[in-house]
Amino acid sequence: MAGNNITDNKYVNAEEFDIYVLDMGFGEVGKEPIDNVHFYSKNEPNKAFKLEKYQVSSLKPKRFHEYLVRVYYKKTDGSYQKIQQKAEKRFHEWCENSEFIDSVVPLRPH
């Protein structure tokens, strides 16, 4: 199979990996949480109001949702280190090509 060859004469099998995707976010997907926040003034403490977009700090994040992907290679013997390293490299390439933010955490045996 073209494209599956990771190292010389070795193929990666999907069952050799555990993949966990953690969906983290707050608010409704695609909407800004600040849109659902009501503010109060000391001059009118019983009257709620919303802020306009220009009144909200420019320091607030542009994204309120992210995914944390953890990929574990099940085999731990030394002969599979090259496969693990190549799979990690391919994953980072996929993140880059898919316009995902790629935050690298060093590999450690589990």
Give a topology summary.
Blueprint: E1 5-7, E2 10-11, E3 17-25, E4 39-40, E5 48-49, E6 65-73, H1 81-97
Antiparallel strand pairs: 1-2, 3-6, 4-5
What can you tell me about this protein's structure?
The chain has one helix at residues 81-97; strands at 5-7, 10-11, 17-25, 39-40, 48-49, 65-73. By secondary structure, the protein is an alpha+beta fold. It has one domain. The chain has a two-stranded antiparallel ribbon. It has a two-stranded antiparallel ribbon with strand order 3-6. The two termini are 30 Å apart. Mean pLDDT is 75; it is low at 1-9. This is Deoxynucleoside triphosphate triphosphohydrolase SAMHD1-like. It comes from Cyprinus carpio (Common carp).
Which terms summarize this structure?
110 residues; alpha+beta; two-stranded antiparallel sheet; two-stranded antiparallel ribbon; disordered N terminus
The SS-based structural class is: alpha+beta
- The radius of gyration computed from the alpha-carbon positions, rounded to a whole number of angstroms, is 22 Å
Number of domains: 1
Helical content, roughly? Answer: 10-25%
Identify low-pLDDT runs.
Answer: 1-9
Number of helical stretches of at least 4 residues = 1
Shape: rod-shaped
Report strand %: 15-25%
Mean pLDDT: 75
The biggest beta sheet, please? 2 strands, antiparallel
What is the helix/strand order? EEEEEEH
Number of beta strands: 6
The strand line-up of the biggest sheet is 1-2
